[in-house]
Amino acid sequence: MSFISLILKNLWRQKIRSLLAIAGISLGIATIIALGAIADGMEHNLIATLRSGKADFSIGQAHAPMIVMSSIPEARLYEIARWPEVKQAVGALVTFASFPGNPYFLTIGIEPEAFELGSVTILEGRAFAKYAEDEVLLGKIAANTLKIKPGDTVEIDLKRFRVVGIYETGNLLEDGGALLPLRTLQKLKNRPGELTVILVRVNEGFSVEEVMARVERDYEGSLITLRSAEEFNRNYQSLSLVRAGSWLISLLALVIGGIGVMNTMIMSVFERTREIGILRAVGWRRGRVLQLILGESLMLGILAAFVGAVLGWSVARSVTLLPQVRGLISPVYAPDLFAQALIIALGVGLVGGLYPAYRASKISPQEALRYE
Amino acid sequence: MSESIVVARDLVKTYENGRTRALDGVTLEIARGEFVAICGPSGSGKSTLLNLIGALDKPDSGELWVAGEDLAHSHGDLAGFRARKVGFIFQLHNLIPSLTAIENVLIPTLELNHSRREAKARARELLERVALADKAHRRPPELSGGERQRVAVARALINNPELILADEPTGSLDSKNEKQVLDLLRELQAERGVTLILVTHDPRVAQNADRVIELLDGRVIAPVAS
Ligand SMILES: Nc1ncnc2c1ncn2[C@@H]1O[C@H](COP(=O)(O)OP(=O)(O)O)[C@@H](O)[C@H]1O
Ligand SMILES: [Mg+2]
Fold first, then answer.
1. Measured between alpha carbons, how far is B195 from B197 in angstroms, rounded to an integer?
2. Pairing relation of β-strands A223-226 and A57-61?
3. Which residues of A353-367 are buried (b: 16+ CB within 10 A; e: fewer)?
4. Going by DSSP bridges, is the β-strand pair A159-168/A135-139 parallel, antiparallel, or unpaired?
5. Considering only CB atoms, which chain B residues are within 8 Å of A6?
C-alpha cells in the first residue's frame, strides 16, 4: 500500500463530497481552457491574417490594445513605400462588419495590387476593380457556409454589394470573411486614410532586420514592426480583453474553488479526528498527517484539472460548431493553456488544503483517542 | 532482578489547568518481557498512565524512562519513538474503515523506511498468526469485533516493538472473543519476549497478567511485588 493509494482511498470514501469539490473546481478550469483556446485561436488567425503571404514583415500601431484596434495613418505607407530598400509596401484595413447572421464578419480592405503579397488566390470569378464601390470578394468558407456564388448580392453593414469572385488564402479567419476595395471599406467604416497594418517586402541586397530597425527608429513610439506570430503575441497578448477575462476567471476559480476545497477538507478532517489520533498513536509524524490531508486536496485539484480540461475542450469545440461563429473561430490548444489550468487547479488544492492540513497535524492524539 | 523497560517516579499529570488530577504521583517499574495489568475503576487514570508510557502525552512532573528514552524531559514530537518502540491497541475503532485488514496492519510501516515488499510479507505472516490470513482483504465493517481486535494486534506488532500497550482491548467483546484475544496477546507476548501492558477495569481480565498494578484516583494502591 502506497501513500498515494491511501490518499485516493480517502477521497473515494466520500465519493459525493469529493465529486462535488471536483465538479466545482473543474467548472472554473473548463472556463479557463475554453476561453483561452478560443482567444488563442482568434489571435492565431488574426496574426496569420496580418502577417500573411510573401511579406518580409508587418507594421502595426504601437500600444494598440488589440491587433484589430491598430490604426496607422495611410501617409506612413506612402513614406515607407518610397524608401529605396523597400520593394513593395501595401496597406490593409482589417475590421469586423455586420453581415446577415453574423455581426462580427471579418472584412479586409485591400488594393488588388496587394493580392500577391497577401497570398490571395481567386478561385472563381475575378478580382474587384480598385475603386469599385459595390464589389466584394467572398472567402471560400464564407461562400460555402452561406451558399453564395459570384453574381449574388450580399449586404455588409446595410450596404448592398455584388459578389464578383471567391478567394482563398488558406487562413481560416480570412477565408471566413470578405475582401473589399480599400477605399470602399474606409468609406463604409468612416475611417478615411486609416490602415490597420502595412505589409512590407524588402528589396534584394538589403537586410530585413535593418529595414525593420529603421521603421522602429523613424517612427519610434508610434509604429512597431512584427515579424513572427510570437512577436504579435508579445505585443498584443497581455492586453487582450479575452485574456484578461481568462485570468480574472482563473483568480475567481482559485478563490471560490479554494474555499470549496477548504470546506470539504475541514469537514473531512473533523470527521476523522479519531482516525488521525490512531495514525499519530501508531507513529505517524505531524508532517505525514499534514502530507496526507494536503495530498488529498492537491489530488482533488489534479483530478479537477483533468475533468476541467476535457470539459473545456468539448465546450470550445461545440462553440466552433455554432452557426454564428462557423469559420471564425478555430480553437488553439496550447500546452501553456493546460499548464496554466493545472497550476490553477494545484493552487486551488494548495489554498484549500493548507489550513485543514495544518489543523489535522495539530490534533492531539491523546484528546482524539479519549472519545470512542 | 531483570532490566526495567519502564521506570516511573512520582508521575503527575493534570488536565484542565490542574483542576483534574489524573495521575497523582505514580511510581512503578516494569521489567522487560513482563506482562503487567493496570487495573482500576473508570476515571482512575489508567489511560492517562498508558498514554504517558506510550509517549502520546507528557507528564507535568516526575521521571519517566521507557525503553531507554527520557520521556519526561523530551522535546518535540515523539512519533518516531512510538513507531519503533511501541504498539498500541485501543478498545474500539482501532482501524481505518476505508482500508483492508492488511492495509491497516501496514499503516505503521509507512513511517519507517522499510522495503515495501518485506513489510507486506511481514503483515501477511502476522495476519496468519492471528488467524486472519483469509480475511486480509476485508475492510473493518466486514469483520467481527473480535476479528477487528486481532487485526489491531497484528498492527501493533508490525514494527517489532519492545512494548505492547493495550487499553481495554477486550472492553467491547463478548466473553468468547475476549478469551480469544487475551490468549492471543499472552501467547504473542511469551513467544516474542515483548513487554505487554494491559489496561482494564475488569479484575477477571487482569488475572491473565503476571502482575497487577492497581490504580485508584491517580495513585498506585496495591503494588504487588514480582
Ligand atoms: N484530555 C483530557 N482533558 C480533561 N480531562 C481529562 C483528559 N483526559 C483524561 N481526563 C480526566 O482524567 C481522569 C483520568 O482519566 P483516564 O486516564 O481516562 O481514566 P481511566 O482510563 O482509568 O478511565 C478522568 O477524570 C478524566 O476525565
Ligand atoms: Mg481509559
1. 7
2. antiparallel
3. bbbbbebbbebebbe
4. parallel
5. 99, 103, 110
Give residue-wise pLDDT tens across range B105-154. Answer: 999 998 887 788 999 999 999 999 999 999 999 999 999 999 999 999 99
Place of cell 505487554: B196
- CA distances to A91, A112, A114, A130, A170 from A121, in Å: 18, 11, 11, 17, 9
Among A3-17, A92-106, B128-142, B207-221, the least confident range = A92-106
Going by C-alpha positions, the residue among A43, A88, A48, A33 that lies closest to residue A66 is A43
Half-sphere exposure of B194 (CA within 13 A, CB side): 26
Distance from CA of A372 to the nearest CA of B (A): 6
Q: Does B10 touch chain A (CB under 8 A)?
A: no
Count the Cβ atoms, other than its own, within 10 Å of residue A155. Answer: 12
B20 CB less than 6 Å from ligand 1? yes
Provide, as residue numbers in chain B, all residues whose Cβ is less than 8 Å from the Cβ of A365. 56
Q: Cβ distance A333 to A273 under 8 Å?
A: no
Tell me the C-alpha distance between B165 and B47, whole Å.
10
Does ligand 1 have an atom closer than 6 angstroms to the CB of A218?
A: no
In chain B, residues with a C-beta closer than 8 Å to the C-beta of A3 are 110
The finding on whether B15 has its CB within 6 A of some atom of ligand 1 is yes
The per-residue pLDDT for range A97-140, each reduced to its tens digit, is 888 777 778 899 998 888 887 788 899 999 998 888 899 999 99
pTM, entire model: 0.74
- Measured in whole angstroms, the distance separating CA A66 from the mean position of its chain's CA atoms is 12
Query: With an 8 Å Cβ cutoff, are B106 and A1 in contact?
Result: yes
Q: Is B136 part of the contact surface with chain A (CB cutoff 8 Å)?
A: no
Contact at CB, A284 and B111, closer than 8 angstroms: yes
> Rounded to whole angstroms, how far apart are CA atoms B26 and B49?
9
Atom of ligand 1 nearest to the CA of B215: 22
